[in-house]
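Quick one, probably user error.
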């Protein structure tokens, strides 16, 4: 399990590096105004991807059960039925893309000389979304087989190809049209590459049209409806802020919230490296009636997620504005830096619940209440962001995103503890007190370092990151997780004395 999580984290590292290189490159080449238009188009068309109706997560659960019982007939029924759903969803995207294009052109201001390019960019983005359903389905198959390392290497290869093409296309034509062409080309490559690998490596997967049945679709929808509603909540929470900023402010203001949000999404994906492994594990342990092992998995990985979240978020809280100044430019140190710090505070609490509690609940098939909680959180995010955008500007949008994250984290943790029959006070006692002491101590140390020394260069910020990780590792191995019942890590003091075996 640790190897799979590690491969997921390596994928997130590659994602972070490509984002680190490409985001300032694209902003500088396109300009803040044009890049803001691209973010708005991406955020709008991302809503069309919700037409998968929660099928990817539901299909992983159904296929995992079929693989565990070696029921190849059921496996092909699930694959064929999902493929049929995705074809229908792709056609629906093409139809719904037209009114969404009208909404974009009537509610957002684009320079007159760029309107035709923006329209073509939007159309290509819609086509890419329609193809993305079938293109991403093989990843659900890899997850169901728990072949996470294979899945991640394929995704890493595509990330590197996408990064190279991004550089070439934007240098050739520095406009948002280049980015939409890039996304469409990569969806076609992904479709051909991943499905070709599936048919070559999994001989038991040979779906035929007759395998697609209404009963299988109903079984998938019974679970995926909740996932679909959950996706709506997540979409409102993570993809709506650029639209709000672009509507109430200007296109040039959009990157000021999109850049910090992108960093937090990378952290979410990093923690998602745990979630992607835990969900099928939870399904398997439930099938084998190993509830005590599942409780141990929940507590162990919650502690890991808390440690990772505190380390990453405290770095962003203390050194985030300086990082943005070096990474993107001086203009992003103040407004974007404040947004980043607000979001990082909320993610201290949100990430462990999102990375562990959520996949445990979904893996056990208990999607109703997590879905309701996520949907309420997304609606609250939208309402607060719109309400505070006019009064407080970018900071109002940031708080509108942060507060619902904290509420959702508390709700998910409570639901997971109840489902696993772990008293909430037990969970809190085992994960919070020592982590809180360690986190406060780490923050004070980093704040002192920041006051005495203001890193501004690549090497300075890199050293600050290494220092943060080192101090966090020391704090957690020597104090927070010392003699922990669920997670044994080598202590630095033991390593120095050569006692750890």
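Nope, works fine. Designed sequence:
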């Amino acid at each position: 399990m640790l190897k799979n999580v590690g491969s997921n984290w390596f994928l997130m590292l590659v994602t972070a590096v490509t984002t680190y290189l490409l985001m300032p490159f694209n902003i500088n080449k396109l300009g803040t105004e044009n890049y803001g238009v691209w973010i708005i188009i991406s955020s709008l068309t991302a809503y069309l991807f919700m037409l998968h109706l929660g099928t990817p997560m539901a299909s992983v659960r159904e296929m995992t059960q079929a693989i565990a019982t070696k029921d190849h007939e059921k496996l092909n029924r699930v694959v064929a039925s999902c493929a049929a759903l995705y074809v229908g969803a792709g056609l629906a995207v093409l139809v719904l893309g037209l009114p969404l294009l009208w909404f974009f052109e009537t509610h957002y201001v684009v320079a007159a000389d760029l309107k035709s390019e923006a329209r073509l960019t939007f159309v290509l983005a819609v086509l890419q979304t329609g193809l993305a359903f079938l293109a991403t389905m093989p990843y659900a198959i890899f997850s169901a087989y728990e072949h996470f390392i294979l899945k991640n290497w394929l995704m890493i290869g595509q990330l590197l190809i996408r990064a190279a093409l991004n550089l070439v296309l934007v240098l050739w034509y520095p406009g948002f049209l280049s980015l939409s062409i890039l996304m469409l080309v990569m969806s076609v490559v992904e479709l051909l590459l991943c499905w070709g690998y599936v048919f070559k490596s999994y001989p038991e997967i040979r779906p035929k049209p007759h395998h697609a049945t209404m009963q299988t679709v109903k079984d998938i929808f019974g679970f995926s409806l909740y996932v679909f509603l959950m996706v709506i909540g997540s979409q409102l929470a993570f993809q709506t802020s650029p639209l709000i900023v672009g509507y109430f402010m200007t296109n040039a203001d959009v990157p000021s919230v999109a850049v910090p949000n992108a960093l937090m999404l990378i952290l979410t994906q990093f923690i998602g490296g745990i979630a992607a492994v835990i969900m099928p594990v939870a399904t398997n342990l439930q099938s084998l009636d190993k509830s005590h092992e599942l409780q141990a998995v929940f507590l162990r990985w919650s502690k890991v997620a808390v440690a990772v979240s505190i380390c990453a978020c405290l770095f962003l809280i203390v050194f985030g504005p300086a990082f943005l100044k070096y990474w993107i430019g001086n203009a992003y140190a103040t407004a974007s830096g404040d947004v980043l710090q607000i979001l990082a505070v909320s993610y201290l609490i949100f990430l462990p619940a999102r990375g562990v509690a959520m996949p445990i609940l979904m893996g056990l098939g208990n999607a109703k209440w997590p879905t309701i909680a996520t949907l309420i959180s997304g609606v609250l995010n939208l309402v607060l962001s719109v309400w505070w955008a006019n009064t407080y500007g970018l900071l109002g949008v940031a708080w509108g995103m942060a507060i619902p994250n904290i509420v959702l984290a508390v709700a998910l943790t409570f639901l997971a503890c109840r489902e696993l029959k772990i008293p909430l006070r037990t969970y809190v006692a085992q994960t919070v007190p020592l982590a809180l002491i360690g986190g406060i101590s780490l923050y004070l140390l980093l704040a002192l370092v920041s006051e005495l020394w203001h890193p501004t260069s690549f090497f300075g910020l890199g050293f600050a990151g290494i220092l943060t990780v080192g101090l966090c590792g020391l704090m957690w191995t020597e104090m927070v997780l010392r003699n922990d019942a669920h997670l044994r890590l080598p202590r630095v003091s033991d390593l120095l004395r050569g006692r750890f075996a």
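The chain has a mean pLDDT of 85.
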